[in-house]
Amino acid sequence: MAKKTTKKTATTKAKKTVKKATTKRKPNAAFMKPLTPSAALAAIVGQKALPRTEVTKKLWAYIKKNNLQDKVQRRNIHADDKLKPIFGKKTVNMFEMTKLVNKHLS
What's the predicted TM-score (pTM) here? Predict the structure, then answer.
């Protein structure tokens, strides 16, 4: 009789895991809200209002296109003439970058 209950529990657990896997997450509305970039940031990502996620994607595309990521310390980004007004310094790490970019979005 003990075997029946364990079988039942195992199938119930399997059904629960299948249910969890099929439900999709909803995107956070705060990330999807279009924000207007400042003049300095607009020189890189464009004038149009964009969500934070798109701003980050365009910024990374610019960084990779212009080879601004440090060769040894991949976390560091070297600012060129367009990025210096946004970052405020010559070198920034990637975690600090998002904090600095958020100041240029409204």
Answer: 0.72
Task: Report whether 79 contacts 91 (CB < 8 A).
Answer: yes
Instruction: State residue 3's pLDDT score.
Output: 57
24 falls within a domain: no
H or E, element range at 7: helix 2-22
- Residue with tokens 């060129």, as numbered in its chain: 80
Number of structural domains the chain divides into:
1
Residues of the chain with pLDDT under 70: 1-22
The pLDDT value recorded for residue 80 is 95
CATH of the domain at 96: 1.10.245.10
